[in-house]
């Protein structure tokens, strides 16, 4: 067996062991917020960032001045104990490219409070003409950072019986004051706890034939298309894919590239990212032969941008 393969497996074994031990350790402090405080911070729950089947996310300004994301959960029928259990499970997640859970509220709405979204969503910076356009280096860092967070979630899930259900697109990727990308839309998936390890082992290191894993890879592919084109998807990626395919038929990659990038991008890097995006998108229609880890490692190796 190749030494690099042995080393990779050994590192993964040690990481999983550490994660298992950490489950019984002390959970970082998660603050309980009052409902009135949350109502005021979100200006009466009017400042909506995005809304989907997980719930609705609001922009909030906390008393200390921090700009936070407050998420209202739709699954109100979980029961108080299940909700608090979810708070604990989400509170354990620690990664540079995940929003950190800082608090919760159990008033008339069940709310989760996540920290530091100073620069808003990725979609704002791709679509809003009043925002300073993101340069190519920033976009590549976002793609690699999101892939790194997805790999972390899959490995973290495979260390226990909990699976984290994640949604990835430009609406729910938040940017902090340094434009570091943060995945914000994560929930505990309670519908697959009877067979969690098969799902996540496949996602993290195997053939990734599981439908849910393939969907995450598909979403990552669409996100990369959004970064390249500057276009946001409104129909779960289908509209953007159709537009890109039309541009390809016309044999003009230039038509796909966001005009805001100008000529300040590396053509070879862009073509490599586009090739990866196309492979990821195919996972919507056929089981992929690669995993999130493969995508992340490839981008790290082929794109010369420090994360």
Walk me through what this model shows.
The protein starts with a helix and ends in a 5-residue tail after the last helix. The chain has helices at 3-22, 35-41, 80-91, 122-127, 136-158, 196-205, 211-229, 238-249, 267-282, 292-302; strands spanning 31-32, 48-52, 55-61, 67-73, 101-106, 110-114, 163-166, 173-175, 181-183, 186-189. It is globular and about 55 Å long. Helix 5 (136-158) runs antiparallel to helix 7. Strands 1-5-6-4-3-2 form a six-stranded mixed beta sheet, sandwiched between helices. Strands 7-10 form a two-stranded antiparallel sheet. It has two domains: 21-114, 2-Layer Sandwich (Phosphorylase Kinase, domain 1); 122-302, Transferase(Phosphotransferase), domain 1. It contains ten helices and ten strands. It is α+β, with helices and mostly antiparallel strands and 307 residues long. Residues 18-27 and 193-209 have low confidence and may be disordered.
Write the SSE topology.
Blueprint: H1 3-22, E1 31-32, H2 35-41, E2 48-52, E3 55-61, E4 67-73, H3 80-91, E5 101-106, E6 110-114, H4 122-127, H5 136-158, E7 163-166, E8 173-175, E9 181-183, E10 186-189, H6 196-205, H7 211-229, H8 238-249, H9 267-282, H10 292-302
Parallel strand pairs: 1-5
Antiparallel strand pairs: 2-3, 3-4, 4-6, 5-6, 7-10, 8-9
Helix pairs in contact: 5-6, 5-7, 5-10, 7-9
